[in-house]
Amino acid sequence: MAALAEAGVGAAPPVEDPGSGSGSGSGSLCTAPLRLPRLPLARVKALVKADPDVSLASQEAVFVLARATELFVETIAKDAYVYAQQGKRKTLQRKDLDNAIEALDEFAFLEGTLD
Predict the structure, then answer these.
(1) How many CB atoms lie within 10 A of CB 7?
(2) What backbone phi and psi angles, to 5 degrees, belong to 39?
(3) pLDDT by residue (tens digit) across 54-101?
(4) d(CA 62, CA 72)
(5) CA-closest candidate to residue 33, choices 11, 55, 52
(6) pLDDT score of 11 more than 90
(7) Are 57 and 42 contacting, i.e. CB atoms less than 8 angstroms apart?
(8) Helix 94-103 vs helix 59-86: angle between axes, to the nearest 10 degrees?
């Protein structure tokens, strides 16, 4: 799985920063290539707007929330996959997620949510 991620398999192609054209001559503060989120931004924005405490959400905020969600799902899936491997399986099961949530303090806020 890690080998696939390192090889770039399944990853979205990097998108060039619009201000970093080769002929423009102006420097850009962003050195990392911009990667578009895999989650649909319209759906993320609809979820944000569903919260009665939120009146406005900029596109940048929606983008950051989508990217943070992707990183969170990736992290918990990798941690749960370790437990699946210990059980000599390649498929994640609910018990693998439960084990990851119980074992790591960073997921303590999720305890009891999958019941």
Answers:
(1) 9
(2) -80, 145
(3) 989 999 999 999 999 999 999 999 999 999 999 999 999 999 999 999
(4) 15
(5) 11
(6) no
(7) no
(8) 100
| Residue 77 vs residues 5, 15, 25, 59, 101: alpha-carbon distances, Å | 13, 25, 42, 27, 11
Q: Residue 41 in contact with residue 62, Cβ under 8 Å?
A: yes
End-to-end distance of the chain based on CA atoms, in angstroms? 28
How far is residue 96's CA from residue 81's CA, in Å, rounded to a whole number?
7
pTM as predicted: 0.64
User: What span, in angstroms and rounded, lies between the C-alpha atoms of 3 and 45?
Assistant: 33
Three-state DSSP string of 11-37: CCCCECCCCCCCCCCCCCCCCCCECCC
Nearest to 48 by CA among 36, 38, 60, 37: 60
Please report the DSSP string for 74-93 in residue order: HHHHHHHHHHHHHTT-SS--
Q: Whole-angstrom Cα distance, residue 2 to residue 104?
A: 20
Asked whether the predicted pLDDT for residue 14 surpasses 80, the reply is no
